[in-house]
Design brief:
This protein is of the alpha+beta class. The protein has a domain at 101-282: Muramoyl-pentapeptide Carboxypeptidase, domain 2. It has helices at 3-47, 147-162, 176-190, 192-195, 223-232, 247-250, 264-273, 277-282; strands spanning 101-102, 116-117, 126-128, 144-146, 169-171, 212-215, 238-240, 258-261. The strands form 3 sheets. Strands 5-6-8-7 form a 4-stranded antiparallel β-sheet. It has a two-stranded parallel sheet with strand order 1-2. A two-stranded antiparallel ribbon has the order 3-4. The longest helix has 45 residues, at 3-47. The protein is elongated, with a radius of gyration of 40 Å. The termini are far apart.
Length: 285
């Protein structure tokens, strides 16, 4: 065999051997490091996808807004009608003053003024006011009224509805302890001298009787109700306790939403007399 041809064969064989060695080394490397290589490839693939948040955690941009809890309406201040919880935590105990005249809350004509006290009286025949009678924002809690006035409230509500007026109750029976919370709230917010002109002290609130209702206390949104009540409530036994122009007599501001049940006959007599309710009730003692 010629020498040149032999040299070419040897060169090809060497190249073939080198390629074979390289293939063997590559195969061995893949075999040895296969798990790690695949794990790295899988991790890179996973990192391209958005990971869900841990259990129990909602991403801020996906969390729906939570509605603010609606507090309970209560007696408004003279300039505005703010709202407070119906059962606000008591701040401090306010006890009725000495020398007040104790009255019986079971008497429909009980004289509830700043000179009298119901003490811790609580009615024994309270019933739940139908939710449909209650202002939509107040339907999260129950409202109560004594049996007799509740029956007449049903009749009055139906008559108002027929006339195109929907009565909406925002407050009814309030216990002595609830009035403690209510009165002290306003004292803390406005000062005692201001609070006593629109909020009763514990034991001196007609709401404790279980015969008294506040209809929508918003003087704008509730105006249609207030106008209808002023003309018709007495026919169903309800009388407005705090009329306009009688602040010096009643001790409270004008409250066109505040009505107390005293019976149909007595309410008609009160309407005809044209006197503040507290003055009229003195004639019934």
């Amino acid at each position: 065999m010629p020498k040149g041809k032999l040299t070419r064969i040897r060169l090809i064989m060497r190249i073939a051997v080198l390629l074979l060695c390289a293939a063997v080394v590559t195969g061995v490397s893949i075999y040895l490091f296969k798990p790690d290589l695949f794990a790295r490839a899988g991790q890179e693939a996973e990192e391209t996808e958005e990971q869900p948040p841990p259990d129990g955690i909602i991403k801020p941009d996906l969390e729906p807004p939570k509605p603010e809890p609606k507090p309970q309406l209560d007696a408004p201040a003279p300039e505005e009608a703010p709202v407070i919880p119906e059962e606000a935590p008591p701040k401090k105990q306010a006890e009725p003053g000495k020398g007040l005249i104790k009255v019986d809350g079971n008497n429909l004509f009980a004289l509830v003024t700043k000179q009298t006290t119901l003490g811790r009286y609580a009615p024994g025949d309270l019933q739940t006011i139908p939710a449909g009678f209650v202002h939509p924002s107040r339907r999260g809690s129950k409202h109560y009224l004594r049996r007799e006035p509740l029956g007449h409230l049903r009749d009055m509500w139906a008559a108002a509805d027929k006339a195109g007026v929907q009565l909406t109750v925002t407050s009814a029976y309030r216990s002595y302890d609830t009035q403690v919370s209510t009165f002290n709230y306003w004292v803390e917010l406005r000062g005692e001298a201001k609070a006593v002109t629109f909020s009763a002290r514990p034991g001196q609130s007609e709401h404790q009787l279980g015969t008294t209702i506040d209809f929508n206390i918003d003087t704008n949104a509730g105006k249609k109700q207030h106008d209808w009540l002023a003309k018709n409530a007495h026919n169903f036994g309800f009388a407005m306790s705090y009329p306009k122009g009688a602040e010096n007599i009643t001790g409270y501001i004008y409250e066109p939403w505040h009505y107390r049940y005293i019976g149909v006959a007595a309410a008609k007599e009160w309407k005809a007399a044209g006197k503040p309710l507290c003055v009229f009730l003195k004639t019934k003692q």
